[in-house]
């Protein structure tokens, strides 16, 4: 019982921390300050592996140099591709990037076009294996049972520690009754003969 309550309490704090972190990531992503990316292919191995989580930040297209790793939308599918830059060319529409994966033998078939003024995502941080964990937890088959289990533990931890028996209050001791003084016994009155004899003596 006590162990489950402690586990529930710890999970409560962990969920609060995760919620604050997730809220901060959501705000930063919505504001365009960062972009979390889950690696789903091995085209950049061994430096970047499948299941890693990349934290990309925006950089100006004119600041990108050959040899850097950037994430750009695929010209055909629109999904972000993280490869190494081989060539940067300026044209009337902005910048055209030629890229290739470190594990790929061929250059990407089409250049990646970036309009003037648009940023380029640059992976600033790589978290090994975290992307795999995030992807698993985000699946409904895992997320729903996990939330139910965590919610049950949190609820169990919030319950009071059992029904306490209320001890009856001790009854106050009765105050001792004051001793009643017995009235003095009346003196016996002399009978009539005695009174008459006393009167005669006078």
Task: Using brief descriptors, characterize the structure shown.
single chain, about 200 residues, alpha+beta, 7 strands, about 25% strand, elongated
Describe what this molecule looks like in 3D.
This protein has 202 residues and is of the alpha+beta class. The protein is built from 4 helices and 7 strands, in the order αβββββββααα. It has helices at 2-30, 130-137, 140-158, 192-201, and strands at residues 35-38, 53-60, 69-73, 80-91, 94-100, 112-115, 119-127. It has a 4-stranded antiparallel beta sheet, with no helix packed on it. Strands 1-2-7 form a 3-stranded antiparallel beta sheet. A hairpin with a 6-residue loop joins strand 3 (69-73) and strand 4 (80-91). The relative contact order is 0.15.
How confident is the prediction overall: mean pLDDT? 77
The count of helical stretches stands at 4
* Helical coverage, percent range: 25-40%
What integer value in Å does the Rg equal?
46 Å
Query: What is the number of E strands?
Result: 7
Class derived from helix and strand content: alpha+beta
How large is the share of residues in beta strands? 15-25%
Rounded to the nearest angstrom, the distance between the terminal CA atoms is 105 Å
User: Sheet bearing the most strands, described?
Assistant: 4 strands, antiparallel
Spans of at least 5 consecutive residues whose pLDDT stays below 50 are 193-202
- The order of strands across the largest sheet is 3-4-5-6
| Gross morphology | elongated
The ordered H/E elements are HEEEEEEEHHH
Blueprint of the fold:
Layout: H1 2-30, E1 35-38, E2 53-60, E3 69-73, E4 80-91, E5 94-100, E6 112-115, E7 119-127, H2 130-137, H3 140-158, H4 192-201
Antiparallel strand pairs: 1-2, 2-7, 3-4, 4-5, 5-6
